[in-house]
User: Fold this.
Amino acid sequence: MAKKIKDSDISHELFDDFDRFEHFAINNWKKIIYFCCAAVLLVAAGAIAMAISNSMEAKAVSAIAGAETAADISKVLKEYSGHPAANNARLRLASLYSSQKEYDKALEQYQFLVNANVPDVVRQRAEMNIAYIWELQGNKEKAAVKFAEIGANSILPEAVRSEANYSAGRIYASIKSVNKAIPLLESAYVNKPRNSSSVFWRGQAKLLLERLKSASDVGSKG
Assistant:
């Protein structure tokens, strides 16, 4: 008579992979269900969080892009001041103030950007625009000095330095400081410009240099 084999006598090594999982599942079905439910909840929570995040992002971008007046932009800046799009919104606000000749308000916005943790390109534009505002306020020499400082900063991009040097030279030329204007305009005249902006400022510098030198020649002959 064959000897009855008990479950406890079945060797673990005789189970193949499928049998082992089946045996594990039979004895641990509650744990598996709990684990699966927890995994589903985690995935669902992540999906919900992403949906909320995307919804908030879309709302912020829509609100910032839709703001047109100075009052509207000021309002959205209070609500979404930390959003990346807020930087351009603040530049737009400063530009609006400048067009309305509210120069102090414009300067306040530009100075905020200069001191804030913003991308270099935004900070550079804000610094340049501060000098432009000073020029509009009638502080021409102060503006020229600021432009010249920016133009002399070798760390800055070529196009920024070229624009700054041209602007400084242009202002000095307008206040009859030709000796200061010419070297700055020559610096703005980049020999091998690397981009279209540099080409533009190079062209502007060339035209003004030719006019100044032509006027100087006429004056010397007279």
Notes: Confidence is low (pLDDT under 50) at residues 1-15, 20-26, 32-53. The two ends are 137 Å apart (CA to CA). DSSP finds ten helices and no strands in the chain.
